[in-house]
């Protein structure tokens, strides 16, 4: 790990953009100049088996192309470490980007498993959740108001400040996803801890020891999910996971998902369902705080919230990076990509491509082309929860600001150190008077 760090630092000094993002916290906090540097040098950068793009057109083409598949699991570990590592894994040591996670499978397995969950994840089902999302949001806001009124509370973020992440942005998605998965209320905090560990594994920058550490925590979560699935099978509820289990069990024996496949579907929905949405809500509050005039526009016209959410997804994408590997020799924008080449796709960079977004660094809640962003990816792996995430963010922001229009970020917001996911660990705010 130390050697990899040193190599990264050397490469960063030589101007390697990936190494910069991995080793330089400043570049990670403000990756935009790295992205534009990559984009200005060409549609696809690099040579050998590893390339990078920050171009919207190239990203979209690759994500939609059947000449590309998902990168092999744990390929970021060099050989022989990779083989040794795989040999030490049990069926419980599976991360969110290892098979059989949907994120790590190509057709036909991907199609088979995605269909199983997608048929229950319909627009109608998401729309039915709205009343529940509103009620949960209001209850969380009541809790926030309660905190604000308490005297003598330990306030690490300064007098009068509450951590919006801890008490709001993280709580709403966990509550919503827990309900979708039929997780009982008393296990919510456990679920939150699982998600945090799983999110760390999304980062290729983890060292071997750190990776094993998170893997151990994740192993407990796998066991608990197996127990939960067994409970739901015995006592099904009206939640999404019970429906998925029921339709899986009704399939002919040779088409049924294995126990590990079913567990991974549930865990992916869980992790993907809140580790990203928490960031969307926090990023939105932070950006609106920096742009009071944009906040004022939304407060004056509530119908702007939908587009404001798209603009946050574009401007401050909660998922910054993904990757694809060429499954055959191919060409992208005139650049030859041999089979086996992995292209790192800078989604956050594609979302600031001036070829699609005029004056891309400007934050504009009324931007007409905001929805062209790739924050939810494209193609076979397009985010299953996109509509749910949009609903949660819209309700969260509308309710938060209509109750506390003068809410201000105060003190020092703390960014998460993750590279793939972009968001805040702590976002101290003063709520201001209640409207
Ligand atoms: C996949 C982003 C919320 C479930 C993805 C991918 C992205 C993404 C970029 C595809 C990665 C790739 O192509 O390599 C986001 C963002 C969210 C969000 C930015 C919130 C702001 C959600 C929610 C759920 C969810 C709320 C579920 C309730 C999934 C699943 C996949 C996925 C299951 C895997 C799909 C597949 O591989 O076929 N998400 N997501 N996501 N997302 Fe989301």
Automatic annotation (TrEMBL):
Record-linked InterPro entries: Cyt_P450, Cyt_P450_B, Cyt_P450_CS, Cyt_P450_sf
Domain of life: Bacteria
Family annotation (Gene3D superfamilies): Cytochrome P450
SUPFAM superfamilies, A to Z: Cytochrome P450
Keywords from the named record: Heme, Iron, Metal-binding, Monooxygenase, Oxidoreductase
Sequence similarity: Belongs to the cytochrome P450 family.
Protein name: Cytochrome P450
Organism whose genome encodes this protein: Nocardioides marmoribigeumensis
Taxonomic lineage from the root: Bacteria, Bacillati, Actinomycetota, Actinomycetes, Propionibacteriales
